[in-house]
Specification:
Structural class: mainly beta
Mean pLDDT: 88
Distance between the termini: 37 Å
Order of helices and strands: EEEHEEEHE
CATH architecture: Beta Barrel
CATH class: Mainly Beta
Number of strands: 7
Strand content: 35-45%
Number of helices: 2
Length: 100
């Protein structure tokens, strides 16, 4: 995958808060123009042997994060505070089929 980085797994400090990795601004800032719906940037993420379609999400302070679903954390044996390698590719819209 094209965009690779190493980050520490964090968790939002609320009950049921998501586990996530922050995306370095050097990777997210150039993609800001793709933030179509509420600032979401559609991506395919990859951690270890696991790939999934998701979105890079805005934190509200100009930075982005990738959420790590429980299924991914379980499969890859990931835990809070662990440093992991993450990669992603931007998902492009599929062309709509023309109906005639």
């Amino acid at each position: 995958m094209g965009n690779t980085f190493t980050a520490t797994i964090e968790r939002f400090e609320m009950q049921g808060g998501w586990h996530f990795v922050p995306v370095p601004e050097t990777l997210s800032e150039p993609l800001g123009y793709l933030a179509a719906h509420f600032g979401f940037i559609p991506i395919t993420a990859n951690v270890g042997d696991t790939k999934w379609d998701t979105s890079m999400l805005p934190k509200g302070d100009g930075t982005y994060f990738i959420a790590l679903p429980a299924k991914v954390r379980s499969k890859e044996k990931l835990s809070l505070g662990q440093e992991i390698d993450t990669s992603f590719e931007v998902r492009t819209r599929e062309k709509k089929k023309e109906l005639f």
